[in-house]
Write a structure and sequence with these properties.
This protein is α+β, with helices and mostly antiparallel strands. It has a single domain (23-349), classed as (Glycosyl)asparaginase (Glutamine Phosphoribosylpyrophosphate, subunit 1, domain 1, 4-Layer Sandwich), CATH 3.60.20. It contains nine helices and twelve strands. The chain has an eight-stranded mixed β-sheet. It binds aspartic acid (ASP). Residues 39, 197, 200, 218, 220-221, 230-232, 251-252, 254 line the site of aspartic acid.
Length: 353
């Protein structure tokens, strides 16, 4: 009896739609988009040397180029964002993978998450200490475990079991991050100072099939302790993707992004704008694109609300209609974007396009 009930249940579950269909793209074949970030904070011209400025732009351009190559060739949004984030994790300029910030105990604890907008599958890891590329581990959690989020020792163990590339702690360390933790420890400055964690990385994309994906990776906050976890590995706060609305990756003061559920909040507001959407090509009301200015306003409104709470930072977004953009309330954000309609561009300061 029990067996037949279980079989019936399994059959019923198997018949549920597992996929979130891509939005109709009849007028948009071969349309794709991608946006990336490398952290937000007090990024001003006076604080960055011309050499560093050049180095950051080159790193953003290289990562963006990698993602666009995959999208142009017809690859998936999931593969494009993964490859892009790996490049940024491997670059010591950013607070993810190599170059991650130090905890209060001078260790590195890395957080990462990834989400597939085509079926809402997601994976995340928090406080991992030995995986070279945490974004690959988050993806393995999504694809190879029955869970969404793993943390600490268990996540490290899962990483080893999955054959992920392991590194020793000195791999992550850079002289700059060591200086920062020494400063935090000696002056007892606030670990919440946004500039001490600058450099979280993320990517969002839509591929030619209209599927969307988002991912984020970080070392978190310099001087973090007590197993503090920020927004980056929290699905709905630092990362979210849904084919019906948008893909988001966030950076900034994680506690505020968690409280506002920033990534999911933006996607939900976009989804609820059905009535403002144009008719589709075959005349179906509310099934065409949402105007880019409306999407931008939704993102700006949520970031403004973050500011009211006292939070600083920003997000990158991609929409099912081929738009890729940003919103942030800090003086700058390392960022870049490219779409099938617009040439690749990278920017650092707030006054750049
Ligand atoms: N959001 C990250 C955290 O709070 C840090 C950052 O993006 O700068 O851990």
């Amino acid at each position: 009896m029990l067996k037949s009930i279980l079989i019936a249940l399994a059959v019923a579950l198997a018949s549920l739609p597992a996929a979130i269909p891509a939005m109709a793209q009849t007028d948009q074949s071969a349309r794709w988009s991608i946006a990336i970030h490398g952290g937000a904070g007090t990024i001003e011209r006076s604080r960055i040397t011309p050499e560093k400025d050049k180095e950051i732009r080159a790193a953003l351009n290289a990562a963006l180029t990698r993602g666009t190559e995959i999208l142009k060739a017809g690859g998936s949004a999931m593969d494009a964002i993964t490859a892009t984030i790996i490049m940024l994790e491997d670059d010591p300029n950013f607070n993810a993978g190599k170059g991650a910030v130090f905890t209060w105990d001078k260790t590195n604890e890395l957080d990462s998450s990834i989400m597939d907008g085509s079926d809402l599958s997601a994976g995340a890891v928090a406080g991992v200490t030995a995986t070279k590329n945490p974004i690959l581990l988050a993806r393995a959690v999504k694809d190879k475990s029955p869970h969404v989020m793993l943390s600490g020792n268990g996540a490290d163990q899962f990483s080893r079991e999955q054959g992920m590339e392991q590194v020793t702690p000195d791999y992550y360390a850079t002289p700059r991050r060591l200086r920062q933790i020494e400063n935090v420890l000696s002056k007892q400055v606030s670990a919440a100072d946004v500039d001490y964690k600058l450099g979280t990385v993320g990517a969002v994309a839509m591929d030619q099939n209209g599927n969307m994906a988002a991912g984020t990776s970080t070392g978190g906050m310099t001087g973090k302790r007590w197993g503090r976890i920020g927004d980056s590995p929290v699905i709905g706060a630092g990362t979210y993707a849904d084919n019906r609305s948008c893909a988001i990756s966030a950076t900034g003061a994680g506690e505020y992004f968690i409280r506002l559920g920033v990534a999911h909040e933006i996607c939900t507001r976009i989804k609820l704008k059905e009535k403002d959407r144009a008719p589709s090509q075959d005349g179906q009301e509310g099934e065409g694109p949402l105007q880019p200015s409306i999407v931008q306003k939704i993102a700006d409104d949520v970031i403004a609300e973050l500011g009211v709470l006292g939070g600083t930072g920003g997000i990158i977004f991609a929409t099912p209609w081929g738009q890729a953009g940003y919103s942030f309330n800090t003086p700058g954000m390392y960022r870049g974007r490219a779409t099938s309609a617009e040439a690749q561009s990278v920017a650092i300061y707030g006054d750049e396009d």
